[in-house]
Specification:
This protein is mostly helical. It has six helices and two strands; from the N terminus they run H-H-E-E-H-H-H-H. Helix 2 crosses helix 5. The chain has a two-stranded antiparallel ribbon with strand order 1-2.
Length: about 180
C-alpha cells in the first residue's frame, strides 16, 4: 500500500468504529484533510501578525467587537465592515465547496486539482504520494499547534511567539 493509504488506515485501532462503513471512512478522510488545510492557514494566520509586528492574533481582530470599528490588514485600513467581510467570505467559501462537492470521485474531492491547484503540484508524478502524506502530517500538526495557541492564550494571555521567547529565556520557570 502507498504511504498515503497507510496514513489513512486505522491499523486496527478504531474504538468508535468510524471505519466500519467504507463510505463513512471516505467522508471522514475528506473532512480531516479539509480541517488540516484550515488549521495550516489558521496557524500561519495566528503567527503572521506577531511576526510582522502588528500585535498578537487575538487583539489584532478586536476591531470586530468595537462598535464602528474598522479593520486594518497589516496597517492598511479596510473600509469594509465585519458583516460585509463575512458575507464575501461566505459566498466565496460556498462557491468553492459547491464546486468541490460536485465531484463524484472521492480522491478528486480530496485533491481537486484544476483551479484548486494553481501551482500544479497535483501532477507531481511519483512524488505525489509523498506530498499527500506530508500535507496530512503537517495538517495534523497544525491542528494540535492551533489548539496549543488557543490554550496558551487562554492560560497566559500571551501570543505564541511571546510565550516561546519567554520560555526560551527561562525554561525552568516559564513553562506549563
Amino acid at each position: 500500500p502507498s504511504l498515503h493509504a497507510l496514513c489513512h488506515s486505522n491499523f486496527g485501532f478504531d474504538p468508535l468504529k468510524l471505519a466500519e462503513v467504507p463510505s463513512n471512512l471516505q467522508r471522514y478522510q475528506e473532512a480531516e484533510l479539509q480541517h488540516c488545510r484550515w488549521a495550516m492557514l489558521g496557524a500561519a494566520g495566528a503567527l503572521a501578525p506577531e511576526v510582522l509586528g502588528y500585535g498578537d492574533w487575538v487583539s489584532s481582530q478586536a476591531w470586530a467587537a468595537t462598535p464602528g470599528g474598522h479593520a486594518t490588514w497589516f496597517g492598511v485600513s479596510n473600509p469594509l465592515g465585519i458583516s460585509t467581510v463575512v458575507a464575501i467570505q461566505a459566498v466565496l467559501f460556498a462557491a468553492a465547496e459547491g464546486a468541490r462537492a460536485q465531484e463524484a470521485d472521492p480522491e478528486k474531492r480530496k485533491y481537486p486539482g484544476g483551479s484548486f491547484d494553481p501551482l500544479g503540484w497535483g501532477k507531481a508524478g511519483a512524488g505525489l504520494e509523498e506530498l499527500k502524506l506530508k500535507e496530512l502530517k503537517n495538517g495534523r500538526l497544525a491542528m494540535v499547534a492551533f489548539l496549543g495557541f488557543v490554550g496558551q492564550h487562554a492560560a497566559t494571555g500571551k501570543a505564541p511567539l511571546a510565550a516561546l521567547s519567554e520560555h526560551l529565556a527561562n525554561p525552568w520557570s516559564s513553562n506549563v
